[in-house]
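input
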Amino acid sequence: MDCDRRRFIKIGAQAALGVLFPVSAFASIKRSQPLERTLRFYNTHTGESLEACYYSRGHYQVDALEKIDHILRDHYSGRIKPVHRDLLNLLSSISLTIGKRTRFHVISGYRSPKTNAMLCKKSRGVVRHSLHMEGKAIDFRVSGYDTKRLRTTCMKQQAGGVGYYPKSDFVHVDTGRVRYW
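output
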């Protein structure tokens, strides 16, 4: 119990520093990460699942990163772009907050400029210069975890943008500036 309180205070202090010094927010997340980082994904469009240890023994694991890039690819065109490591570390931090076996149900990862333009025409919720096109954003939900609560969990990270889409039942996170919608 005492350890949980210390971790809570540490995360709170990191969040406060993130507000005062947003550039250091990701460095703060990296320091609080375990030595081995594993992420679990389920792509809702392709039906693919992945569990990958993307960081181990002080190094990013190239094979695991390639597998993550593949599962988070543009499902319309099949195009792949490397996912920004800060985004993976943010997801890892969110996963640690929710619980060790967190599985992200991916709605949208990387988007090619062509796909993003097409989605922009279809929906007012898609922006022309989306961070999805840079591999710095993901839309997701976590099965069995209330999406409104998920939004709050993501906002507490103070590490980028958080969008909440209750009608579509998903949350957007990115590694841009801290903002909420």
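quick obs: Strands lie at 37-43, 49-56, 59-60, 104-108, 137-142, 161-165, 170-174, 179-180.
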